[in-house]
Amino acid sequence: MNLKSNPKSEFSIHNTQIFSIGKPINFSFKPPTSFTPPTILLFLSSTITKARFTLGLGANSFPLIQPFMLAELPLILKGWLCTVVAVGALFMFVPEIGELSHLLSQGDIKRLGQKAGKVLLLVAVRSVAQFWQQALLWEAALNITYKLRGFVYQHVLNRDMEYFEGEGGAAAGDIAYRLTAEAEDTGDTVHALLHTLVPSFLQLVAMAARMITLSPVLSFATISVVPVMSIVIAMLGEKLRELARKGQASVAGISAYLNEVLPSMFVVKAHAAEAFEQRRFERLALADCHAHLGKRRMKALIPEVITAVYAATSIILFGVGTWVISQGSFNGAGMVSFVTSLVLLIEPIQAMGKAYNELKQGEPAIERLFELTTFSPKVLEKQGTVTLKTVAGDVELCDVSFRYKGSVSWVLKDISLRVHAGQTVALVGPSGGGKTTLAKLLLRLYDPVQGSIKIDGHDIRECSLKSLRQQVAIVPQETTLFTGTVAENIAYGDMDSEIDMMEIERAARLSNSEEFILKLPNGFHTNLGDRASSLSGGQRQRLAIARAIYQKASILILDEATSALDNNSEKLVREALEHLMVGHTVFVIAHRLETVQQADRIILLDGGKLLEEGTHLSLIAKGGQYASLYSTYESNEQGSLLQRTLG
Ligand SMILES: Nc1ncnc2c1ncn2[C@@H]1O[C@H](COP(=O)(O)OP(=O)(O)OP(=O)(O)O)[C@@H](O)[C@H]1O
C-alpha cells in the first residue's frame, strides 16, 4: 500500500464525518406550523407519542430517531410514492378479478383474454412498484443505521474518561454490542416503522374502502373485530418490549464478558482458570437462554392470537355472507371481489402485526443506543479557549486536590508545584500514591476538584483540549498499537493531516526503532493488525517513544515500564528516551534508579500528599522517607527495579 497516495488507509474510520444531526433532539409536542412533509412527519410522530401517553402505553423511542428519519426523507418519500402506485394497482385489480371470474363462468373467451391481460398488467405494475418500495425504504433504514452509529460513536468518544474507568460506566463489550447488533436491530425497526406507517396503512385503507363499496353490511361485520385485536396486540406488545430489553441486556453481558476474558487468555491459562471461566460463561449463557425463551414464547404467541382473531372473522364472514347472498343483494362476482379484498386487507394487517413485533423488540435497542448519548460532560471546553501553539513547557500546579467520583478520600491533596521549562521531574512513591492520577490531570482527562494547573501561565481549563493534548505527550507503561501500518501507528493522533514520512523516519531513527521496522516485510508500511503481538516489549516501547517524538509536544509524561527488558533492549529504550527528553519538560513516573538519579527534581507522593521534594542528593542528605526507601533499595543487591522499593 502506498502511504503517500492513501495516507489514512485503515485509520480513515477515525475521521468519519459526523453529520449535521448532532443537534439536541427536541422531544416536545407542537402542532405543525407549516404543511411540508418534514413537519407533517414530526407532527404525526408527536401525535402518536401523545396518544400512547394518553392510552397509558408509555413512551416510545420514535422521537429519538426522528431527526435521522427526516434526513432520509427524500428516499422515504420516493419509497412511499412507489407504495401509492402499488396500492393503486391493487385497488384496480380487485373489481377486475371479480369480473374475470364472471367471464370465466360465461365462457366469453375474447373478453376473457383482454381482462386477463389487464389483470396481469396490474400484477406486474404492483410487483415492480413493491420492489422499489422495499429497496428504497431499506436504503433509507440502512442509511439511518449508519448515521445513527456514527452519531452514537461520536458521543461515546466524547464521554469523560470517568465513564470508561469508573463505576457506572458501560463495559467495552456492552458498548460494542450496542453499536453493532443493536444498531442493526434499530435498522430493522426503522424499516418496520416506515413500512407500517404508509404502505401497510394505505393498502389497509384501500382494501377497506373497496370492501365497503362492495358490501357495507359484510364490511362492518368483518371489520368489527379489528379494535378488539388491536387492544390485545398492544398489551402483548408491551410485554414483548420488556422481554426484548432483558434479552438484549443478557447478550450484551456475554459480549462484555468475552471482550474482557478473550484478550486476557494468557492470565486465564497461567492461573489454570479455564474451568472457573467456563462456569462464569455458562451462568451468563443460561441467563441469556431464560431471557430469550420468554421473548420467543411471546413472539410465538402473538401470531397465534392474530390467527384466532382471523378464524373468528372468517366465521362471521361466512355467516353474514350466506345471509347477504340469500337476500339477493350480492352476486357471485361481488363475493369473489369481496373475499379478494379481504385477503388483501389481511396482508397489511399481518404486516402491521409483524412490524409491531419488530418495533417492540427494537425499541429497547434504540433506547440503549441513545443511553450512550445522554450525559453532561465534566471536562468541558469553554467558549473562546486559548490554542496552545508553541509552548515553552512551564508547568504549575496550584493547590491541586482531586478525588474520583463516588470516593470520599482524596487521591491528591493540596499539591503545589512549579516545574520550569526543560526540567525533568521524577514522581516516586508507594503504589496508589497518586502518580498516574497526576499525569491524568496534566492531560486534562479529569479536572481537579480544587485548585488549577497552568501551562506557560494558562489555566489548562482555558485551553483547547486538542492543543493541550498536542502539547502534552504520554509514553504509557503499556504500549497500545492499533490496526494499521507502522507509520500510521507512529503518526497516531495526527491523522487529520497528511502523514509526514520524513518525520516518521526521523522519529523511528531517534527512538532506535528504524532497524527492526526495516526488517518487517513492508517496512513502515507493514500492517500491525496481526503482527503487533509478535513485537517484543522493547520494540513496542520504542514505537511508543517514536509516537511521542512525532507528536512534537513540549511536555512529556513517561510512565516507565516496570517489566524488565534484556540488557540490549534496555539500552536501546534508554537511549531512545534520552533523545526524547532533550529540550522537553518531563514528568517521569519513575521505577528505575538511573532515571531518579538523573532527574532535576524528585517528588515523593504518598497518600496523595507531596511529602518530599528535591534532588537525589539533597533528599538523601535530608534523611527522610526518600532516603530510607533508597537505602532499602541499595541493600537489595539483586533489585533491578527501583519500583520494588520506591513505587
Ligand atoms: N478511575 C478510578 N476510579 C476510582 N479510583 C481510582 C481510579 N484510578 C485510580 N484510582 C485510585 O486512586 C488512587 C491513586 O491511584 P494512582 O493510579 O494514581 O496511583 P499510582 O501512584 O500511580 O500507583 P501505581 O504506582 O501503582 O501505578 C488509588 O487508590 C487508586 O485505587
UniProtKB/TrEMBL annotation:
Q: Which Pfam families match?
A: ABC_membrane, ABC_tran
Chief subcellular location equals membrane
User: At the top level of its lineage, which domain of life is listed?
Assistant: Eukaryota
Instruction: Give start and end of each ABC transmembrane type-1 domain.
Output: 100-361
Coiled-coil-forming residues are: none
Topology term for the membrane:
Multi-pass membrane protein
Q: Which CDD domains match?
A: ABC_6TM_exporters
Keywords of the record, alphabetical order, are:
ATP-binding, Membrane, Nucleotide-binding, Transmembrane, Transmembrane helix
Membrane-crossing residue ranges in chain numbering: 217-236, 305-326
Q: Domain named ABC transporter: which ranges?
A: 395-632
- Gene3D superfamilies reported for this sequence: ABC transporter type 1, transmembrane domain, P-loop containing nucleotide triphosphate hydrolases
> What is the annotated localization of this protein?
Membrane
What InterPro entries does its record include? Answer: AAA+_ATPase (IPR003593), ABC1_TM_dom (IPR011527), ABC1_TM_sf (IPR036640), ABC_transporter-like_ATP-bd (IPR003439), ABC_transporter-like_CS (IPR017871), P-loop_NTPase (IPR027417), Type_1_exporter (IPR039421)
> What is the name of this protein?
Uncharacterized protein
